[in-house]
Amino acid sequence: MDPFALLALPKRPLLSEEEIGQAYRRLAGELHPDQAGGDASRFKELGEAAAILRDPARRLRYLADVTGGSQLPFRAAELFPEIATLLREADSLIGKNQAASNPLAKAVLAAPLKKLAADLESLLGILHGWRSSLDDRLAEIDTVWPAHDPEEIASLADSFAYATRWKSQLRERKLSLDCL
């Protein structure tokens, strides 16, 4: 299955959410199994195609015909220790807060939880900056596409994958803290 062909979108690295959404909605109306002439298997393929195109890492890997996991991107290697430490700390403090059986035990955790929330917010800001630089690089590559360096595309795809996963993990911990 070629996700670009299925959604009738141009094969290029940079696609907007709006472009993908419009193409998906147009075809989903025709292929939905509840519609006359709908096709459940093609509708499922349509959903998978949209998912591939919405994810910059998957889209780049598909375009350049590269697989992930070649090498840890430099910026990801720099951020990994800080992110891993903060995620462990968040899990530990959230667990301690949930296990706290009295108001005094919860009060003792208030300051570390407040610091953790600030650290999570700071690291999310750093990830946001990194993601913005990845988006800028993607736009640059799009201007010269189809000329590309497969290794650079693989590294960019891996960087998008790390940035997206870590942002999700940090936001999940932040939400857990906000709900305490």
Task: Give an overview of the whole structure.
- This protein is an all-alpha fold and 180 residues long.
- It folds into two domains: 3-54, Helix Hairpins, CATH 1.10.287.110; 74-178, no CATH class.
- 78% of the residues lie in helices and 0% in strands.
- It has seven helices and no strands.
- It has helices at 3-6, 17-31, 40-54, 56-64, 74-99, 103-144, 150-178.
- Helix 2 runs antiparallel to helix 3 (40-54) and helix 6 runs antiparallel to helix 7.
- It is flat.
- It starts with a helix and ends with a helix.
- The mean pLDDT is 93.
N-to-C CA distance: 45 Å
The total strand number stands at 0
Proportion of residues in extended strands: under 5%
The oligomeric state is: single chain
Radius of gyration: 21 Å
Which H/E pattern describes the elements? HHHHHHH
**Average pLDDT rating:** 93
Share in helix: over 70%
| Alpha-beta content class | mainly alpha
Give unreliable regions as ranges. Answer: none
Shape field: flat
Total separate domains: 2
The total of helices stands at 7
Describe the largest sheet.
Answer: none
TL;DR of this structure?
With 180 residues, the chain is mostly helical. The chain has seven helices and no strands. The protein folds into two domains: 3-54, Helix Hairpins; 74-178, no CATH class.
Q: Key terms for this structure?
A:
7 helices, 78% helix, mainly alpha, flat, single chain, 180 residues, 2 domains, Helix Hairpins
